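Example 840, ligand zinc ion.
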Amino acid sequence: MPVDATPAKFDFRAADSRWQAAWTERGTFRADDASPKPKTYILEMFPYPSGRIHMGHVRNYTMGDVIARVRRMQGMEVLHPMGWDAFGMPAENAAMERGVHPGDWTRSNIKAMRGQLQRLGFGLDWSRELATCEPDYYGHEQALFLDLLDAGLVYRKLSAVNWDPIDMTVLANEQVVDGKGWRSGAVVERRKLSQWFLRITDFADELLDGLTTLSEWPDKVRLMQENWIGKSQGLRFTFQLAESGNVISDLPSSFDVFTTRPDTLFGASFAAVAADHPLATACAASDPDLAQFITELRASGTAAAEIETQEKRGYDTGLSVVHPLDPSLRLPVFVANFVLMDYGTGAIFGCPAHDQRDLDFARKYMLPVPRVVAPAGEAEAPIVDEAYTGPGVLVHSRFLDGMTIDDAKRAVITKAETEGWGTGTTIWRLRDWGVSRQRYWGTPIPIIHCEACGAVPVPREQLPVVLPEDVTFDVPGNPLDRHPTWKHVACPTCAGPAVRETDTLDTFVNSSWYFMRFASAPASAPFDRAMVDQWLPVAQYIGGVEHAILHLLYARFWTRAMHHIGRLSASEPFAGLFTQGMVTHETYRSADGRWLEPGEVGGGIERATGEPVSVGRVEKMSKSKKNTVDPDAMIDRYGADAVRWFMLSDSPPERDLAWSEAGIEGAWRFVQRVWKLTERTSTAPNDGLLRLAHRSVAQVTADLDRLHFNKAVARLYEFANGCEKSKAGLPPEVIDIFLKLLTPMMPHLAEQCWARLGHTGLIADEAWPVADPLLLEDDAVTIAVQVNGKLKDTIVIPKGSSREEVEALVLALEKVQRALNGGAPRKIIVVPDRLVNLVA
Ligand code: ANZ
Ligand code: ZN
C-alpha cells in the first residue's frame, strides 16, 4: 500500500478508514487462545446501549486501548473485547414512551454505537462481541443460575421491598432517593413479595479478606467495598420485659438487641424496635394508635441513607425492659423509625450521649442523656447537641469506670457470656442479593411454579427460556405477567398446569460474568474452564467510580461462586482496577434561562438570537444541561486521533477532564506537527536526538505502566519539540521510536507516517522500543560531598535520587567515613541533585 509522500496535511478522513480496514482485514486485534505468548486481558466496563457514545465512553475506551496496544507491542497476547450491557429499564421506557419494541430499540442502538466505536480505531477483538439481551448470552446465564441453585446459593423468600408505584417495580435501596423512586419520582412504598436471592453473605468474609489481595485497586474503592460489607464486632443480648400492668396477648417476654458499643450500656436511656419487629406487631394488635403509627412509617422512605436524614420519630409502647447490668433499672420501649428491621436484630438500646441518632431521639422525647465515655478530665462535661463518639475512658459506669472503650467492651461481653444473657458476635452490613425484577427486558428466571411441586427449575435441555417478542407496553407493570400464553406451561415434574416465573434477573447479574464469556464462548456451555483460566483474572479493568460498589462486588461474588462450584480457578475477577474521572464541559444559558448547547454559542453570544449568553459552571456532560459534545461531530472535524489524544492529555486520568475547543484544537495541531516531522528524515547521526529518544522510551513506558497517560502525552510533546528544534533532519531510529511511542495513542497517524517512511508492515505489529541504558546517562548528576563545608568527594548518581538514597551512598564513602572518624554526623544537609554537606 504505497502512501503519497507529498501531501502537506495529514488527511485523517482517508487514513482513519484505511487503517481501520487494514486492522480488520488482518485480524490484528483478534486474541488467539492458542498463542504461546504470555496472555493478558485488558477490559473496559462494557457500555449500556443507550443510543450514542458519549465522551465519557471515549475517554474510558481510549485508556483501555492504549494499554492493550502497548501490551501487544510488548509481545503479549492481548484479549481486549467489547460488548453490550443490553438489558434494563431505559429500553422499556423507550417502549412506553415511543412505542418501539425494547429489542428493536436496543439492537439499533448497538448498531449505531458499534459504528461510533469503530470510527475511533479501538484495537478490539470484535469477533467476541456479545450482547446480554440475546438468548445465546442470557440462556447460559440461566444455566449458571441453576448451577448456583443446585449449589444452595439461591433461595426464595418473602421480603419487604421498596415498591415504586409508578414504574411498578421493586427498587434497590440505592434507587430510593429522599423516599422517592430515582426515576419516577414517586413516593416509594413497602411491600412484601416473594423474591429470589443469591447468598452473597455466605462469601462476606472472603469478599472482605480478598480486598487485601487487590493491591492494584484504588484504596478508595477497597475502602468503599469494605464499608459496604460492613463487618462489625458487637454484643447481641436479651432484654427481659419488665412486668407491666396491662396484659397484651401474644406478647413475647423478651427481645434481643445488637450493639457495637456494649461499653456504653450504663448510658442507655431507652430501648427501641423497628416498625416491623414482632414486638411492635404484637403491641399494635391492641393499640390502634400504634398500628396507625406503623402504617405511616411503612409509607415513608426506607433506604438506609435516607433514614439517617429523616426526622427521628418514635412511639412509646408503655412497656419497659430490665437493664441487664442492674435489675433495678428500667428502660422504656419505643417503636422508632430509625431502627431497621433487617439489620442486627431489628432492635436496639439507645445511648443518647454517644450516638447521634439516639441523641436526636432523646431530645425529642425528653429522655435522659447520661455520659459514660469522656476524655481525661471531662467526665462532667455535658452533652449538648452533639453525641460524643471519640476516644476516652468509661465514667459513671460502676465496674467499668476508668477502662478504655475496648477494655470495657470486652468486660461487658465477658460478663454477658458468663451470666448467660448475651454473646459476642460479628455482624455484617452486607445483605443477600435480591435479584428478582418485575420487568420484561431482562433474563427470565428459569423457574416454573407448580401448585403441587412448588418452584421447579426449568430442565436444562429446555434452556434458554426465551423472552416472548409479542409484548405490549401500553399499561404499566410487567408485560410477561399479562402475556396471554407465555407463562402457561406444563410442570416439568408432574406435568400438571403450571406457570413460569415472570420476574427477570437484575441486570447486575448480566454484568457479573460477561468477562468470562468474552474469554470463552462455546455454544453449549456458558464458558470453558480451561479457556477462561488462560485469561482470567482481567489484568486491567477500567471504568467509572460509580460502579465502585455494586457492580464490582457482584462480579467478585459471582467469580467466587463460580470458583466455589468448580467452574474456574480465579477467585478474583479483576487484578487491576482503574477508575477514570469524568469528562466535563462548561454550561451555557440563554438570556431567558434556557440551557444552550455548545454549538448554539459563539463568542459569548447565542447564535440564533444574538443575545449574550451566561457561562455556567463546568459540569459533567449531561443531556439535561445540554453541555455534551458529540464524539461523532468531533471525529468528523478533527479525526479519531486528535479526539483520542485530547482524551489522554491535560488531566491525570483519575481526575475530571474539561472538554475545551482549545484542547481539541491543540491536539489537532499536534497531529499536523507529527505529520511534518516525518518529512524531515536524514541519515546523519544525531547523538542528542538519540538520547532524547531513549529517554522518552524509558519515561513513556513507565508512565503508561502507571496509567499516567497525561504524563506520557507531555513526554511526547517534549520529544516532538526536541525533534523540531534540531536543525538537521531526524535519523531513522529517532523517528521510528517516536512513531512507535505514539502508536497506542494515535494509531492512525502512526500507521500513515510509518507507511510514508516506506515500511510495508503495520506499526501496530512492531515491537515496543526498549531504552538503551547507555543512552540514558544524561540522567546522571554529579554531587559534591562536603564534610563541615569542605569538599571531600564527588559522586555520580541518578538525577532526582531521594534524600534517603543520597544519604546512604554518601555515608558509605570511604573519604567521608575518614573525615567523620567513623562516627555519625550530627546533621546531613542535602541539596537535591547538587550537594550534600555532613555536619560532624
Ligand atoms: C448502642 C450504641 C451506643 C450504639 C452507642 C452505637 C453507639 P454499625 O456500627 O453500623 O454496625 N443499631 C443496631 N441495630 C440497628 C438497627 N436494626 N437499626 C438501626 N440501628 C441499629 O451500627 C451498629 C449500631 O447501630 C448499634 O450499636 C446500634 O446502636 C445501632 F454509643 O448500640 B448501638
Ligand atoms: Zn408439578
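Summary: Residues 232, 258-261, 264, 274, 338-340, 343-344, 346, 348-349, 351, 354-355 surround ANZ (ligand 1) (CB under 6 Å).
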